UniProtKB/TrEMBL annotation:
Residues 4-325 form the Cation/H+ exchanger transmembrane domain. The lineage of its organism: Eukaryota, Metazoa, Ecdysozoa, Arthropoda, Hexapoda. It comes from Schistocerca gregaria. This is Na/H Exchanger. One of its GO terms (cellular component) is membrane. Belongs to the monovalent cation:proton antiporter 1 (CPA1) transporter (TC 2.A.36) family. It is a multi-pass membrane protein.
């Protein structure tokens, strides 16, 4: 998420801010609603549980999308119109929104604690993440000074440390959505400040994070694979679950194309934007088992809730298996074919 913040272009973000907001929220709401309807009729999942599943599935996987978009950006595809920045920014906001709604639905279903406070936690987490990210980014603008011979190393490790504190600290106090947002905003604010000091868009700190990511990316995807349990899948329901996912993703793609109208994109670029939202992985791996863990921890688990929680996990597993590899492949294949190769490569 920090690397995502470093890669955002302030100019493109300002120009496309309205599109970012629409692409982050409307397709997610559409996908969640479509999945709730599909699972209600095809898998007999109650409405509340369908919305819970929809919130978990609506999140785009930053671990898959962001590296793919950075790879296209570094090769010069779609940079003049800020398409990589648009997708990365919208994916980050999309995840925060989806995780917040998932948390609210969990508390509605299991009625733990004060429901009003739980609903307030979503927007409050966003405010906390924004505040932390802005403050930490401004601190890194002033310290260390550019003339410090260890400036790049210090800025790299301080930015990384701030992101870790934000993510782990937000989880410790119960505001999970604040962490990723804070890490992204800190990277964005710090990079914007450094550019005012004379650093290029692809700063030395960005290059350092690219090197760090080369080591951590295999570990992250290994953890995603470790969360997938094929034995949780029941053969007679797999086909129906795939049909539900196909319906929800189709609705999301269509809405994404419609939203992109009026933003100055041609048909090819709109098509790419629509398919860039397919990959599901990290968020689904984290949220998929939550409901089942809660039900199993009960003194007397309800048999219906056990079935519904297993259904949520099954759909999450299938979403990871099908969309993560297909989605990343589509992004890398469609990018060079649908996005313009700008004459001016990123510095």
């Amino acid at each position: 998420m920090t690397r995502a913040g470093l890669g955002l272009e302030a100019g493109a973000l300002r120009r496309l801010s309205g599109v970012v907001a629409r692409l982050a929220l409307l397709p997610s709401i559409t996908e969640a609603g479509a999945l709730a309807v599909a699972t209600y009729y095809l898998l007999s999942l109650p409405w509340l549980w369908g919305l819970l599943l929809g919130a978990a599935m609506a999140a785009v996987s930053p671990a898959v999308v962001i590296p793919c978009l950075f790879a296209l950006q570094e090769r010069g595809y779609g940079t003049k119109k800020g398409i990589p920045t648009l997708v990365v920014a919208a994916a980050s906001v999309d995840d925060i929104f989806a995780v917040s709604i998932f948390g609210i639905m969990i508390n509605v279903i299991f009625s733990e604690g004060n429901l009003t406070m739980k609903i307030i936690e979503g927007p409050l987490g966003i405010i906390i993440g924004l505040a932390f990210g802005i403050v930490w980014g401004v601190i890194l603008y002033f310290f260390p000074k550019p003339e410090d011979r260890f400036c790049v190393s210090l800025r790299t490790w301080l930015l990384l440390a701030g992101g870790l504190v934000c993510v782990l600290g937000s989880e410790a106090v119960g505001y999970n959505g604040a962490g990723p947002l804070g890490a992204t905003v800190a990277g964005f604010v710090a990079a914007a400040g450094w550019r005012r000091q004379g650093w290029p868009q692809t700063s030395p700190v960005s290059q350092s994070f690219k090197t760090i990511w080369a080591f951590f990316q295999p570990a992250l995807f290994g953890l995603i694979g470790a969360e997938i349990n094929l034995f949780e899948l029941e053969g007679d329901r797999v086909g129906l679950a795939i049909a539900c996912l196909a319906i929800a993703l189709t609705c999301r793609i269509l809405v994404s194309v419609v939203i992109a109208f009026g933003a100055g994109f041609n048909v090819k670029e709109k098509t790419f934007l629509a398919f860039a939202w397919l990959p599901k992985a990290t968020v689904q791996a984290a949220l998929g088992p939550v409901a089942l863990d809660i039900v199993r921890s009960m003194v007397q688990p309800d048999s219906d809730q056990l079935l519904w929680a297993r259904t949520v996990l099954e759909v999450a597993v299938l979403a990871i298996l099908l969309t993560a590899p297909i989605g990343s492949a589509l992004i890398m294949l469609l990018g060079p074919r649908l996005l313009p190769l700008d004459a001016q490569r990123p510095v």
